[in-house]
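Morning, I've got a small favour to ask if you have a moment. You're getting the sequence in one-letter code plus the fold written as tokens. Thanks so much in advance, here it is:

===
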Amino acid sequence: MRKSLIFLPAVPLAVATINASMLEIRKVMRWGREQGLPADLGLWDQEDWHEAIVHKASQVEGAKTVAFHVTAIRRLRQLAEVITGISPFDDPWGDETAEAIGAKEYDEDVPCKDTLATPSIPPETWWPLLRGAWTYIHTFAPDIFRWRNHFAQQREPRPDTPLSTSARPTPAENTDTLLEEWLSAPGNAVPVHEVDYQNTKAGTPMWTALSKMVTSGRTMNIFGSNNTSSRPQKRRAIVLAAIGEGRVAIATAGVGRGKGSTAPSYIAPGTGPGVTQEQLDDDVRRWLADPSTLVPVHTTDDHGKTGEPIWAMAARMIWGPPPLGAHRKRYAKRFDPRQRTGAARMRLLRQAVAAGRGLPVDLGVGVGWRAYRLECRDAAHIQREDGTSEPWRTQISAIELTFELHMLRAAVYVFVSALTLMRDSEVQEIQRDAVRTYFGSPAIVSRKTKMDPARPELHWWIIEPVAEALAVLEELSWHSTHLFVALAPPTGKQTHTEPGIQSEAEIDFFINGVNTIAHQHGLAKIPPAHVRSHMFRKTMSQLAGREPDSEIALGLQLKHAARRSFANRTTQAYAQMDASWAKEFDTELQQAAARKLVDLLRGRRQGERVAVGPGAARLHAGLDKVIATIDNDPQLRAQIADERVEEALLADEFPNLHLGTVNHCMFDAPQAECQDELPEEQRGLAPLIGACQPARCRNSTITRAHAPYWVAEEDDLTALSKDPRLSPPNREAVFVRLADVQRITRALEEEGTA
């Protein structure tokens, strides 16, 4: 690279950026083949490159996408010297920036180029997606964690489970320490042979028995003479020194093959007097005493075992996993019909099955005890569509629990991504104890990674439900630092512990999962839609963008750089409303307007004149029509106390009502004064708020709630009209405006109740 005079930045590009650049180059090459251009991109003329950019601009939305295309070509030009099959070529655009090229080539006739190609998530998908995620986080998570702990106990060895002599070798350093501690104990003595035995002379230490005593049965050869290491010899020397000090226990034995030895011997825990048959019986009775316990039984098979308890699975549930090595057979005999105690325990389980406490388990799926279904008596209750309340789960197996744990992790990712406006990489960089206080408000601390090699630690403000979601994820994650990791730590030969998940697969898994179990868990189905992490930022931005003075807050939350204290044009592009959400908000406003009219409807029913202004007669006529509709329909009259009925009728009667601070507008384009200020082709779409004439327009109505604003404006205009500094034209304009305002205030005074 240096020989070709190519010097790249010390900090390499992100893999995602490199991959995206390669995809752009592939598109350029494909377009070139279609145009019959040379396969060697270095042989293209400058006009060819300009045509390629023009073609790109016609295929995408947004100048920034075109600019990235230009940047990818420039990266290719930089490396052309060392790429086979591409001749070096000059920059087709000289010193012009990629942003300027994208803005120029995208569409010079469009006055605003600050749009995003990123689509938003449709509202019909957005709302059930968030509600489903929050239900998992807030309602289902406590149950999922409780069941996880229960099944974890089935995987953990019981304290009385014997260890195999071949299980988990002890490190050499720890073995030396164990030997020193054992010899330092006052009551311990080295067992030695009393008489000669085969090739062993009397007085020789019993090395195998001593190994078991020192390591609690883990190994029998810590003094092995065939070991190439010097440690066994050193350990033998230590033991012989102890014998020289008189620390000896002579093992008496009979003549011949050594039967009848009374030498000290190692007794594995769980195989001697420590675990009696009575204790095993008590374990079975204690397990069956729990009313939620169901005995696993065979389903239909070819051996006539239908309804018969699955003894190995029941043993695991009572005593934990079976041990390894020689003690496994002894464990299996705890349910042995040939032994009196084993047969008695089997009768207890069969009696429970006969009493209706059997649970069929299909072992054909090849998962053994993990197919056992636990009774979920304390599961959270959910509201069904028919108004009934039921547990969201009645039974669950270890296999199904793995699915629910995955759904919970996916729910947290969806919820946090949607409500924080963080990028995918920033969400996945969240670590433990990430919830802080920032300028007096709760916030998440994470790292901004996009195009910033320094990876600064930044803050994103959050609401309380997001903090709850992260608390759930902290309990779910096993990783020491990061939260979004694999569901289980690596085991065996697996060594990969890097944090991170595949966000695309996670989102798809959650949506598909909800749609699969929606009818069981009481969730609403999510309409199929393409949902990705960057679409959460766009959707939430346009929702937040409707709030007053939202641009600055959005710019800070989105981490958009700005050279002044206002958000830049990128933030405005994120907050730009699309058609699907505009319709959603129109419906919401229509319903809000109907709710506002309910009080006016009840006042009108009492005979009041509830509004004044040029449009008051239309409003009164519409309210009277709704009242007549209710009075003439017995079914509607019976539901007069139900506001939802009134809201529905009012929404149909006033579909274009726009609520305002100083008046309400029953928008009818031909009568609207504001439409006269617009070009002919733009009229009739929506009210023009800035050109509203509330005292003159026949669409305008003023209610009692608006009166304080009109009275205050009358006082201000009256005081202003007395200012001697006003010029005659300005004074005349004030008097004209004052006359309009007084027309309304006088009407409000005359109506009294209006």
Observations:
- The radius of gyration is 40 Å.
- Residues 164 and 324 are 5 Å apart (CA to CA).
- The mean pLDDT is 78.
